[in-house]
Amino acid sequence: MNKKMARLRRSRKTRAKIAELKVMRLSVHRTNSHIYAQIYSGCGTAVVVAASTVEAEVRKQQPKGGNVDAAQLIGKLIAERAAVKGVSEVAFDRSGFKYHGRIKALADAAREGGLKF
Fold it and tell me: Residue 97, CB half-sphere, CA atoms under 13 Å: how many?
């Protein structure tokens, strides 16, 4: 089993539990260059809110998308957009990534922005 397969195995467990609870899910994905965050509906089929470092307005503020500062920016942005849509409580889906570094920075910034998880 390689690193990617192990991460996907961990993510399946988390997603199965969240699907069982039928709550909105804040899903995070990271690459070396960018970080992406999406909030899915309770049924898991529709994206309610999304933010990523690929967006032009984010690139103006933070040209490098693969660092902790960019992750904090995306966390604040996803929390603001969720508040506009009326979303206040979500389950955090880290997609099998370790809760460390950029993932932790995004989660902390989203909590500061008003999301509860």
Answer: 21
Residue that is written with structure tokens 């889906």 in the block: 93
100 pLDDT exceeds 90? yes
**Strands, sheet with 35-40, edge to edge from the N-terminal-most edge strand:** 47-52, 35-40, 25-30, 91-93
pTM of the complete model: 0.93
Q: Residue 101's domain is classified under what CATH number?
A: 3.30.420.100
Domain that holds residue 97: 3-112
* Alpha-carbon 100 to chain mean position: 13
Q: How many domains does the chain have?
A: 1
